[in-house]
Amino acid sequence: MPRWVDEAVGEYRKRLPPELKLDIRDLPLGGRGRDSNPAKAMAEEARRIRDAMPTRDRLVVLDGAGKSLSTEQLAVRLADWQMSGDNYSIAIGGPDGLDATLLEAAELRWSLSPLTLPHPLVRVLLVEQLYRAWTINAGHPYHRS
Fold first, then answer.
1. CATH of residue 61
2. Alpha helices in the chain (DSSP H)
3. Which helix (H) or strand (E) holds 65?
4. Is the residue at 144 inside a domain?
5. How many domains does the chain have?
6. In sequence order, what are the residues at sequence separation of 6 or more whose Cβ sits closer than 8 angstroms to the Cβ of residue 24?
7. Alpha-carbon distance 72 to 3, whole Å?
């Protein structure tokens, strides 16, 4: 990721409380080339995501066709996630999206926007929105709407 992404993500990560720990893992993309098969690449990426996920984690996937959440709705979800005592893995797909097996296995298919967003921006937006949702739940003045 570009330095600006690491800096922005780092800023929000250090603001989060210890109980909201983010473990970000970059995984290699599936093989792509002029004659490659996107479905095969997505299946390879899905395998890598499943292998990288801790066994008991619950899966949330970012999907442009998924459910849109307002920041306030995300705050409610985040509170529910925290109260469940479970860990969650949030998967961001490759350039062709996520394999159908991951979409079907997900507890939530979440759309950050109907726009197609570049991965660096998605990472910053995701971490900022998790931080913002936490501030709502904590009564912190960061969120003003």
1. 3.40.1280.10
2. 3-15, 38-52, 71-84, 100-105, 119-138
3. strand 58-68
4. no
5. 1
6. 9, 123
7. 30
Tokens of 36: 């490659």
Indicate whether 59 belongs to any domain.
yes
CB 27 within 8 A of CB 48: yes
Q: What range does the domain containing 80 cover? A: 3-21+40-138
Please name the amino acid found at residue 32: R
Helix (H), strand (E) counts: the chain: 5, 3
Look up the pTM and report it: 0.91
Q: What is the pLDDT of residues 41-64, one digit of tens each?
A: 999 999 999 999 999 999 999 999
What's the CA gap between 59 and 106, in Å, rounded? 5
Question: Per this entry, what is the length of the chain?
Answer: 145
